[in-house]
Amino acid sequence: MGEINHFEYGWITPALSYALSVLGSALGLVCAGRIRTATGAGQRAWWGLLAAWALGGTAIWAMHFMAMLGFAVGGTRIRYDVPLTAASTAIAVAAVGIGLAIVGTGRLTGLRLLAGGFFTGAGVAAMHYTGMAAMRLDGSLAYDPLRVALSVVIALVAATVALWLAMTVRRALAIIASALVMGIAVNGMHFTGMSALSVHLHEGRGAATGTEVSGLLVPIVLAVVFGVVGLVYALLAAPSDDDRAGAAYVAARLDGAPSAAPAEPAPDPVGLRSRSTLAQPGAPFPSRRSTDRRS
């Protein structure tokens, strides 16, 4: 039986994995909020793709890989199968994308939420155990069925809550609080699944095939960094509601069509509008006598 250490580098890896899950959850919630305000199918698909990458790629998969950096088994080195590792990434992003597509089209109902949560949660669990199957070491892996089932239940519940938050949360403070809770749920699912693992070392130990974690670290870190920067840039570059309203107003004025004036009038610090009838179209010009009587 191989001795398992989940925190080989102390609390650095779990802290970083939690930070990644919170960051990805926050970006994903903001992108999911843009799905609700999108004006066309193309925009909804674009923001859905970004939300799937933020939640599936950063909050879930990057968190998983960061936590795995602290995983070690005494007596053997750990390597990874690159195609399976890439497949686990695709599973996470696709699962979140399917869930967002289910809950983000049409009116949000309980049935849609449960269906989206089921697909997303099952995908998250599949991502985790696919990533574990990508490990190559001088031993065989075994799992406690009860803890595996518990990790799947946590994934299903966490995914359902995450999709509900993605479709309902709008305020900045609520997004931050939701991201903190989602980070706890994602990490809880991961470490519950890891606690179900046991490793039986082989008698004749040979060199395990696969890629060292150091060979995967640099490209994965670069992918995460560029992905986060791209998400932030996309959010900052996207026009806001005020920008769209202003553009529509200017376009209507240029076309000569009647349009509503901006909703908020210019500031009136001294109360001039309350003293003048000029603000009302068609009102007669006030005479000096009536003005003096008013004052």
Automatic annotation (TrEMBL):
Signal peptide feature range: none
Residues passing through the membrane, by range: 15-33, 45-72, 84-103, 110-128, 148-166, 173-193, 213-236
Domain MHYT: 9-200
Pfam families referenced in this protein's UniProt entry, alphabetically: MHYT
Keywords: Membrane, Transmembrane, Transmembrane helix
GO CC terms of this entry: membrane
Chain spans, region Disordered: 257-295
PANTHER family with a match to the protein in the record: DOMAIN SIGNALLING PROTEIN, PUTATIVE (AFU_ORTHOLOGUE AFUA_5G11310)-RELATED (PTHR35152:SF1)
The name this protein goes by in its record: MHYT domain-containing protein, NO-binding membrane sensor
